């Protein structure tokens, strides 16, 4: 087949370049572009052999050692293999950088979206995305499976912290800002491809509605609360879907976003991954989405026990690329058989490939498939971390402040600090950090609230005990107690009980006995039920999941920076006000309403 090199000519329009390339691609090369294995399942040699268009790292899909340089080498190895194919189509390497390049040790980790939502600051969100993009480029990564534009309507959902707010306009504005930041990390030299997710109404599912897929070995199920609402069924009418959950996608498309990730969930019992009306008629035709739709991890497999039927159903519904982490060869074989049988038309394949190539040409991937090493110079550096500290400060929501508990001062004596979270970076970061589920401990470089308080007040003026074990000779003027949630992600964080753990209630009571004023700081991915401690606390601060720069919390607690954060959700009084529909039906208002946030 005569090979035209017109597609390599950057002076031509993107559509001309796509036409030139598509016209000379074989079916194998086209199917390869639609295939995205996970990096542990494929060798660079097979990337070349199967014309693979994309490779991903799932949560925790890290090289060894796990650092920027090692990541850059890994990604470069896959990219060079893609460039060795007949047509030299560069691959897209994708990761979940949902609050910074969070898989990589040493990266700058920002507050999770629920904290960013509390800032209501689109410019700040854009700048955080730009820093994230620069750290992605430092590792050769061109595709970020973010922003999640989820709108959680039930805090029992383990992904609540991935949503900015319970307000379509706010989510649209902040999601669009994140898209802008990724697409132009420094005035446009390089573009990171955002993935707006999870389409659509992933946050509107009903507790207990998740199906089981016994034919899938790699399943997420549990006899406990876990996986009870994630990937469930959004039992809502079309007006609700269109007025609440669809607007953030419109806003992202207006920013030029060229990738959307389909949701595992269902809409009134129909899986999104096979929903032609929503994927094709609404997203592509009605909203004019010209990019490509990628599946979620192995999500096609959930459509049918018969894999052939699942693939045909999903691709014909409008899926363009399959995130097929493991058995990519089976997908390729099935795709080829389905096209040869006519169950999937060549026109559908060409449309999918055209969309994928459009994103790659738009990114400049053909001109610069391998990023410059200079991006590594600032990776996790001070300038990036200062942006994260600004985000931490602006994300804090002051829920309660009585008896002038805040601002903190050591003038009357040492400040007591209790709670393991005060000195634990892993607890400050939450899920999606280094490992999929995150972990406690010094998992990555950063600074803790305790370090921040010592820097602000002086080491001699801060007494720390994780267990709140202080001498009881005399009461301290003020104590800071950090409570909250251990790290989790996705359905592993689904829970029917949002109350503070008994050990944290006991910790508050223990410290209450040895201080005049008690300031509660909450590290959580969602509102938690505070009834057991509310009366014990003079001040309460929602710090969400602040990331590696938790020392910045101290700047606000001592009054050096203002409290600016506003709740993006109604904060329920009890589990009787969860989910949102129960709160609306409740004859009491929320403990703290949407938009609440005190200042000093
Ligand atoms: C996960 C998540 C999705 C993520 C993908 C790749 O299961 O649902 O948000 O982008 O798989 O890690």
Automatic annotation (TrEMBL):
GO terms for biological process: glucan catabolic process. It holds the Pfam family Glyco_hydro_3. GO terms for molecular function: beta-glucosidase activity. It catalyses: Hydrolysis of terminal, non-reducing beta-D-glucosyl residues with release of beta-D-glucose. It is an enzyme of class 3 (hydrolase). Residues 26-358 form the Glycoside hydrolase family 3 N-terminal domain. PROSITE patterns: GLYCOSYL_HYDROL_F3 (PS00775). Residues 396-599 form the Glycoside hydrolase family 3 C-terminal domain. It comes from the Bacteria. Its EC number is 3.2.1.21. Keywords: Glycosidase, Hydrolase, Signal. InterPro entries: Cellulose_Degrad_GH3, GH, Glyco_hydro_3_AS, Glyco_hydro_3_C, Glyco_hydro_3_C_sf, Glyco_hydro_3_N, Glyco_hydro_3_N_sf. PANTHER family: LYSOSOMAL BETA GLUCOSIDASE (PTHR30620:SF16), PERIPLASMIC BETA-GLUCOSIDASE-RELATED (PTHR30620). Belongs to the glycosyl hydrolase 3 family. This is beta-glucosidase. The lineage of its organism: Bacteria, Bacillati, Chloroflexota, Candidatus Thermofontia, Phototrophicales.
């Amino acid at each position: 087949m005569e090979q035209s090199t017109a597609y390599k000519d950057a002076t031509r329009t993107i559509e001309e370049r796509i036409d030139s390339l598509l016209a000379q691609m074989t079916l194998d090369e086209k199917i390869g572009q639609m295939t995205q294995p996970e990096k542990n399942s494929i060798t660079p040699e097979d990337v070349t052999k199967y014309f693979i268009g994309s490779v991903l790292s799932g949560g925790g899909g890290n090289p060894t050692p796990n650092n920027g340089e090692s990541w850059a080498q890994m990604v470069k190895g896959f990219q060079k293999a893609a460039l060795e194919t007949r047509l030299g189509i560069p691959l897209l390497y994708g990761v979940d950088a949902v609050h910074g390049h969070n898989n990589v040790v040493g990266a700058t980790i920002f507050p999770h979206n629920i904290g960013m939502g509390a800032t209501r600051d689109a410019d700040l969100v854009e700048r955080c995305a730009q820093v994230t993009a620069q750290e992605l480029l430092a590792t050769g990564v061109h595709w970020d499976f973010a922003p999640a534009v989820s709108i959680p309507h039930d805090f029992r959902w383990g992904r609540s912290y991935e949503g900015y707010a319970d307000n379509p306009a706010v989510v649209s504005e902040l999601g669009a800002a994140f898209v802008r930041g990724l697409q132009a990390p420094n005035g446009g030299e390089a573009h990171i491809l955002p993935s707006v997710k999870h389409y659509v109404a992933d946050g509107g599912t009903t507790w207990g509605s998740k199906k089981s897929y016994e034919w899938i070995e790699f399943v997420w199920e549990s006899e406990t609360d876990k996986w009870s609402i994630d990937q469930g069924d959004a039992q809502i009418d079309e007006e609700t879907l269109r007025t609440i959950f669809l607007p953030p996608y419109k806003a992202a498309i207006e920013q030029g976003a060229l990738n959307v990730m389909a949701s595992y969930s269902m809409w009134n019992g129909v899986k999104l991954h096979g929903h032609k009306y929503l994927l094709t008629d609404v997203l592509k035709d009605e909203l004019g989405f010209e990019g490509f739709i990628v599946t979620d991890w192995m999500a096609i497999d959930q459509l049918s026990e018969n894999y052939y039927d699942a693939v045909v159903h999903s691709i014909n519904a409008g899926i363009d690329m399959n995130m097929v982490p493991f058995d990519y060869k089976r997908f390729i074989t099935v795709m080829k058989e389905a096209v040869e049988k006519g169950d999937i038309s060549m026109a559908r394949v060409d449309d999918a490939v055209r969309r994928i190539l459009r994103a790659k040409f738009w990114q400049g991937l053909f001109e610069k498939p391998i990023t410059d090493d200079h991006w590594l110079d600032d990776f996790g550096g001070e300038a990036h971390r200062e942006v994260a500290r600004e985000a931490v400060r602006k994300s804090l929501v002051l829920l309660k402040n009585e008896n002038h508990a805040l601002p903190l001062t050591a003038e009357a004596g040492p400040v007591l600090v209790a709670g393991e979270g005060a000195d634990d970076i892993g607890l400050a970061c939450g899920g999606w950090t280094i490992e999929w589920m995150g972990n406690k401990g010094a998992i990555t470089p950063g600074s803790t609230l305790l370090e921040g308080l010592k820097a602000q007040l002086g080491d001699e003026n801060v007494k720390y005990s994780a267990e709140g074990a202080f001498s009881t000779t005399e009461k301290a003027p003020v104590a800071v107690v950090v409570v909250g949630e251990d790290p989790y992600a996705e359905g592993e964080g689904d829970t029917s009980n949002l109350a503070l753990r008994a050990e944290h209630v006991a910790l508050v009571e223990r410290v209450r006995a040895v201080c005049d004023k008690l300031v509660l700081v909450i590290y959580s991915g969602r509102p938690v039920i505070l009834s057991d401690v509310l009366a014990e606390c003079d001040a309460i601060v929602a710090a969400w999941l602040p990331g590696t720069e938790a020392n910045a919390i101290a700047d606000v607690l001592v009054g050096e920076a203002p409290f600016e954060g506003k709740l993006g959700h109604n904060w329920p009084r009890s589990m009787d006000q969860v989910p949102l529909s129960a709160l609306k039906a409740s004859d009491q208002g929320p403990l703290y309403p949407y938009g609440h946030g005190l200042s000093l």
